[in-house]
Amino acid sequence: MTDTRQRPRADQRRAPERYLSTPAEGIETRHAFSFSAHYDPKNTHFGALLACNEETLAPGAGYEEHRHRDTELLTWVVSGALAHRDGDGHAGVVRPGMLQHLSAGRGITHTERNVGGAREPVRFVQFWLQPDEFGTEPAYGLRRVEPAPGGLTLLASGLDRDADSDALRLRRSDAVLHLVTAGPWQTLPELPQAPHRYAHLTAGSLGYRTVPGPQGGGRSLEPGDSVRITGAAFADPVAGPDGAELLLLEMHSGLVLG
Could you give the domains of the chain? Predict the structure, then answer.
């Protein structure tokens, strides 16, 4: 498990710094962590997060059938539409304002493609999270999201406190995915605290301080940028002139090993 006594830190990663791969024609992927043939021993995960891929699929392009096991996959479409079909008979089209959850469990195959007839690329962000239940039956969920009035919207959760909410149910009992929104020049809502928080900006821009108070350095985020947050770092976030849309993954422990 993760040592929660580590010093506060806001480790920012710019979108162009992410490893770029082109696994098939019409597909471009920017990887936040080591992935497939790309391996960096200092960048294998953050908390319980195994991967965060920002994908672009051209019209007609997509991933052919492939297999996942014991992984929670959360997919948020930024623009366009993504068609999903899996070996257990689930099929869905994910559009902006919708969240898809695939719990791979003991193993499942699926395809992901730009929706048929599309004239524009589909762009989406996908998180891969380690579950704390292994070998379970695969599960699938898709929901349309209505942003909460206060700007902090619960998307998916494994916490007991959220069991009766509309959030998609994760098989990671101490992880939560939130959508954070703010209008132009607005302060972001108070963000939930956790030993590990991963923030990925999907639209707009924002500024923040690395730690609270005058000693915190000023930083800014553009779409595709991310911040790995430990402790009380990432202070006083304020949206830019076009507002901000942020995905925030709250994690209360790290990888389960062994």
Answer: 14-251 (2.60.120.10)
Prediction pTM value: 0.95
* Whether 158 contacts 169, CB under 8 Å: yes
Torsion sign across C-alpha atoms 105, 111, 117, 121: positive
Q: Cβ contacts of residue 102 below 8 Å, gap of 6+? A: 68, 72, 73, 75, 84, 86, 108, 110, 138, 139, 140
Q: What is the pLDDT of residues 174-222, one digit of tens each?
A: 999 999 999 999 999 999 999 999 999 999 999 999 988 888 899 999 9
Mean pLDDT of all residues belonging to the chain = 95
